[in-house]
Design a protein that fits this description.
The protein has 460 residues and is α/β, with parallel strands linked by helices. It has three domains: 4-67; 71-202, Leucine Dehydrogenase, chain A, domain 1 (Rossmann fold); 222-384, NAD(P)-binding Rossmann-like Domain (Rossmann fold, 3-Layer(aba) Sandwich). The protein has 17 helices and twelve strands. Helix 9 (255-266) links the parallel strand 6 (247-250) and strand 7 (270-275). Helix 12 packs parallel to helix 13 (365-373). The longest helix is centred in the N-terminal third of the chain and has 26 residues, at 4-29. The radius of gyration is 22 Å and the shape is globular. The two termini are 40 Å apart. The mean pLDDT is 98. Bound molecules: NADPH dihydro-nicotinamide-adenine-dinucleotide phosphate and (2Z)-2-iminopentanedioic acid (2IT).
């Protein structure tokens, strides 16, 4: 008869083989989609203890189903530039999983957008949205359109053409897009206007991140950055640490970065650096956020312009160098894979104590290993940056109720949601044998809710 130990070993081997087989199939069926493979690998590796404990998920092919989007839409987006020339871009929407609510997730406009990028983002969104505790499924979309250097009229013509096709697939109860890289308040306004014109009704809940005068929620603009800082605050608190008096580096200078800088500074930190895709600035006095907001939110200029107004600051070409600046807390808030193994090692060598991922998948798998192996507090993206989509769900709730909460009400709900995500991730990590590992904890906590809903709803 097999010993208890042998039975346990058997269950572990079966779970590992299951996960590995699914991963190999994903690679085979989605060739060359490296970002998607990376996101899938991170989740699947974390889920092995779940399948050991609950083989029912394996028997119901939950993984095989969850890695396959319910639907992918890819479409032509023709538009006319200011010179009268016809331009063509490609649009995407991946409707990944609707087990716990309508598809929900942002739109990214960036030249690097392709099926792999949209699928990695959509896949992450399933688990992130589940972690928020709100009834939202996972989706993502975007285009390889480059908004840089385009006039407002070009942006409008492009977004109208994009929405003319996208509107066939979205709605307040089916799929609710929002912003991401390159899509902010201006773009959401144009998208909403075109949707309304085509549909002929006022369906406020079809998009989130709207302007405050037409159905937007207070604190949505701030939510992702504030939420990431609230999450890191919880990680620090558990170790008797805090933002007060700490030195912080934040990459990027877009929506997430700006409000991460704002909240970290409010909590007593000195944020000494931020960046854009050309380079980074280092300001030993602490970043002047009013200048960054004006340069980026109003004038849409490059970050190097900062040093003209603040001569004590320095500008460096190239963005990865930002991780060579010694800091206590690093908040990568720009883009995927911006911290590789070498940058992670540099951060550790310089004494970093905590990482909070404001961006989606900003650390490579190797970088994550460096942080975890060196006992750096690590807040993974799908937990740490969930505040944005969580407040998007609160915007949907306000739209349904036809009322608007105050900034303080929304901010208090956001704060509580981030505390809950932290606690649920810690608890899942403990329960499944990886205490302190929030990558495993967040992935498992996010997965279980979706998996149970899928089980309850049958083979669909
Ligand atoms: P923005 O477009 O407002 O800002 C993006 C910032 O990152 C800019 O400073 C941009 O620089 C920089 N950046 C973009 N691409 C690169 C690149 N390839 N290399 C270096 N820097 C780059 O986007 P957001 O702030 O909204 O998004 C930032 C990250 O946060 C993304 O990963 C997004 O998916 C994630 N996120 C966003 C949420 C939201 O609510 N907006 C919610 C959760 C996650 P430049 O101006 O030069 O392009
Ligand atoms: O990555 C993300 O969570 C977002 N870009 C926000 C999505 C949303 O629907 O608010």
């Amino acid at each position: 008869m097999a010993t208890v130990q042998e039975v346990k070993q058997d269950a572990l081997q079966t779970a590992k083989k299951y996960v590995n087989d699914v991963y190999e199939t994903v690679k085979k069926c989605n060739p060359h989609e490296n970002e998607f493979h990376q996101a899938v690998k991170e989740i699947l590796d974390s889920l092995v203890p779940v399948f050991v404990k609950h083989p029912k998920y394996m028997n119901n092919a939950i993984l095989e189903r969850i890695v396959e989007p319910e639907r992918i839409i890819s479409f032509r987006v023709p538009w006319v530039d200011d010179q009268g020339k016809v331009q063509v871009n490609r649009g995407f929407r991946v409707q990944f999983n609707s087990a716990i609510g309508p598809y929900k997730g942002g739109l990214r406009f960036h030249p690097s957008v392709n099926a792999s990028i949209i699928k990695f983002l959509g896949f992450e969104q399933i688990f992130k949205n589940s972690l928020t505790g709100q009834p939202i499924g996972g989706g993502k979309g975007g285009s390889d359109f480059d908004p840089k250097g385009k006039s407002d009229m070009e942006i409008m013509r492009f977004t109208q053409s994009f929405m003319t096709e996208l509107c066939k697939y979205i709605g307040p109860d089916t799929d609710v897009p929002a912003g991401d890289i390159g899509v902010g308040g201006r773009e959401i306004g144009f998208l909403f206007g075109q949707y309304k014109k085509i549909r002929g009704g006022y369906e406020a809940g079809v998009l989130t991140g709207k302007g405050l005068g037409y159905g937007g929620s207070l604190a949505r603009t701030e939510a992702t950055g504030y939420g990431a800082v609230y999450f890191v605050q919880e990680m620090l608190k558990d170790q008797g640490l805090s933002f007060t008096g700490s030195t912080v580096v934040v990459s990027g200078s877009g929506n997430v970065s700006i409000y991460a800088i704002e909240k970290a500074t409010e909590l007593g930190a000195k944020v000494v650096a931020c960046s854009d895709s050309n380079g980074y600035i280092y300001d030993p006095n602490g970043i002047n956020l009013d200048t960054v907001k004006r340069l980026k939110e109003v004038e849409r200029k490059r970050i190097h312009e900062y040093v003209q107004e603040h001569p004590q600051a320095q500008y460096f070409e190239g963005c990865t160098g930002i991780w060579s600046i010694p800091c206590d807390i690093a908040l990568p808030c720009a883009t995927q894979n911006e911290i590789n193994e070498a940058s992670a090692k540099l951060l550790v060598a310089n004494g970093v104590k905590a990482i909070g991922e404001g961006a989606n998948m900003p650390s490579t798998l190797e970088a994550i290993d460096v942080f975890l192996n060196n006992k750096v507090l690590f807040g993974p993206a799908k937990a740490a940056n969930a505040g944005g989509v969580a407040v998007s769900a609160l915007e949907m709730a306000q739209n349904s109720m036809r009322l608007a909460w105050t900034f303080e009400e929304v901010d208090a709900k956001l704060h509580q949601i981030m505390v809950n995500i932290y606690r649920n991730s810690v608890k899942a990590a403990d329960e499944y044998g990886h205490p302190g590992n929030l990558v495993v904890g967040a992935n498992i906590a996010g997965f279980l809710k979706v998996a149970d809903a899928m089980m309850a709803q049958g083979i669909i």
